[in-house]
Amino acid sequence: MKKHVETSLSHIAKFAPFAEQAGASHFPIYNTGTFDLKKQDGDKIYDYTRSDNPTREMLENLFTEVESGAGCVCTHTGIASVALLFETTLKANSHILVEADCYGGTFRLLKVFKEKYNVTVHFANFLEFDTMEEILKNNPIDLVLCESPTNPGLKIIDLKKVANLAHNYNALFAVDNSLATFISQRPIELGADFSLFSTTKYISGHGAVVAGAIVAATKELSDEVHYYANAGGRSQNPMDVYLITLGIPTLKVRMKEHEKNSIIIAKFLEEQEYITKVTHPALESHPQHKLAKEQMDYIPGLFCADFTSLELAEKFIENTKIYGEKCSFGSPDSRVEIPAKISHASFSKEELEAIGIAEGTVRFSIGLENVEDLIEDIKQAVK
Ligand SMILES: Cc1ncc(COP(=O)(O)O)c(C=O)c1O
Question: Long-range contact list for 352-355, CB < 8 A, 24+ apart?
């Protein structure tokens, strides 16, 4: 019987590659570089932690299960899982179709692949299927990539439709699932070939570690991902794996609380005269609100609010006492940042405008604090 995601998350040690000792709730951290080949006689032989490690394998088995995939590699950062995706699926002169609203680090990495390997990057708005189809029809696209919700624009992409479109043109389809996470949405079940994510965010949940993972839909793709992970040394160290396992069992309750708090604050901001627009997929004012509710079980606590000016946005950030000015999201502490200055500094002004990000746009990542304290802090900061 396939279990619900939260049931699997609450029993991580069961995903260990060999029996846990005395039913321990946590599998040991195999902090070792090498394994003695002479001392092993099981089906699975470990030789070197870069290629395989039992502690990492436990997390990879869990992610494979909850994302409904065929195999997974845990990587040392979230962006390393994006790099590993490109190393696995692209070659020199490849073409890739990417949603224009993507994480700034992904955008920067695409520039690297363009400059070094002559990869042609086609950016498009994935709400416009005709434009996408035109690009797929006229170019040999190897890979289609998007986030949903997108970061920072918080657009919701119809993943089932994009998967069908990509496959009609023999392209692979990958989804960066960092925002929604597998507790809310499982892209492989909707037709994607890969689901990848930064575990730095909601999944580890406590801001204590930087890491990522990529799950492949088939054994063949998974074998390829493992090959390139070993070749390029992309794998995650066992100590970081352990830190992630500490946060995972509470993912569902945290996501619910992030969602609840963020909706209250987004609605409060919507009513303030110094805010011109609030973009949160959980609000009815969001253009893809209906799809967001259908595609995700919980809506992440990340949203954007446009202040009337950059000066006011900066004043708010300067004066706030609870919200840190920090990149990243999904931690217990609430954070704010101006995407144009921090997470998306690699975008030009025009590129930001094209995805709906203004100078005075502030991205909020709402944490687990008392929501009244969070609102009082906003009130005093803008005075
Ligand atoms: C959507 C998305 N993907 C990937 C990453 C990269 O993850 P990491 O910071 O863990 O390398 C981020 C980081 O913010 C992100 O927002």
Answer: 354/100, 355/100, 355/101, 355/150, 355/152, 355/153
Q: Is 78 in the pocket of ligand 1 (CB under 6 A)?
A: yes
Q: Do the beta carbons of residue 337 and residue 349 sit within 8 Å?
A: no
Q: Which residues are CB-neighbours of 4 under 8 A, at least 6 positions away?
A: none
pLDDT tens digits for range 254-275: 999 999 999 999 999 999 999 9
CA of 188 to the centre of ligand 1 (A): 19
Q: Give residue 1 CA to ligand 1 midpoint distance, Å.
A: 33
Q: What is the pTM of this model?
A: 0.97
User: Both 243 and 256 in a single domain?
Assistant: no
Ligand 1 centroid–CA 47 distance in Å is 30
The verdict on 305 and 185 lying in the same domain is: no
Q: Cβ distance 85 to 112 under 8 Å?
A: no
- In the chain, how many domains are there? 2
Of the residues 220, 249, 278, which one is the last residue of a structural domain? Answer: 249
Ligand 1: does its nearest atom lie under 6 Å from the Cβ of 210? yes
